[in-house]
Predict the structure.
Amino acid sequence: MSPTDLRRALTAALLTLTLALAGCSSGSGDAKGKKPKKPSKSASPKVSPGPGDQTVTLDWKGEKRTYAVHAPPSYTPGQKLPLVIVMHPYPSTGTHVARLSALSAKADEENFLAVYPEGLNGGMNALVCCGSADDVGFLRTMTKSLVDTWGADPQRIYATGISNGGDMSFKLAVELSDTIAAIAPVSGGYSGRITDPASYVPKSPVSVITFIGGEDKWYPVFNAGLTIWQERLKCEEQPPAKLKQKITRTAARCADGSDVVAYRLPEMGHSWPQGKADMAEREAAVNATDLMWEFFKSHPKKTT
């Protein structure tokens, strides 16, 4: 079977299972979808940038959309700081993924902004799940506001997330490739019918670091999607490095200058390596948060 045939077969199986389970569930709650309202003109949020945590509300296409911004203690207006967009699983919240990832503490150590957008009804409209909202448009608007108002550096904007949030990272890499410098999907993947066209790839280089578990029921889909991503971007992969707990690390350089690094953890399920809350794999030999930030630091925005 060719990689394309394998991808189609796995995608069909994924979609069937997704419908049966109502999306990639995190097991942290439940939410029912509701009919989206008609689009309306969005309003600029009123904010007072400063250190610490602040929840911002944005009137976006007839919905009140919110996101929490965490600025490090050293933050002062006018600084150009890196920005990490952190997206929760389905059904869940920004508060949960903030605890799980510990990226606010990392932001305090490394002096960057972390933002936790809330999906409608507990999820983002990613590649195979959940809802029908224009979340790419919402996140573009949110990011522009963070650049204009909070001083986020437009050359150092990154995205990460777990499960539904990891899938959404790949969607942003493709559909906001003019904005995103690199992504770090955790237990998420490049899959679904939207990715069937070979043209569904970034138009501007976006580097990837990803973490997938061998005990995750979605592992075959995530692994096949990563193979397709690398084939489409003509990436040359180096031999895998072997780490503790039989973990492997692969690295590839792609024709557009982007990098792809993948950690495969054979003993991990649908989890965040060394996370701090529900959905954490606390005994993992690698720390996803530390590794993704080191990767982000070395991958500012590239242009072709």
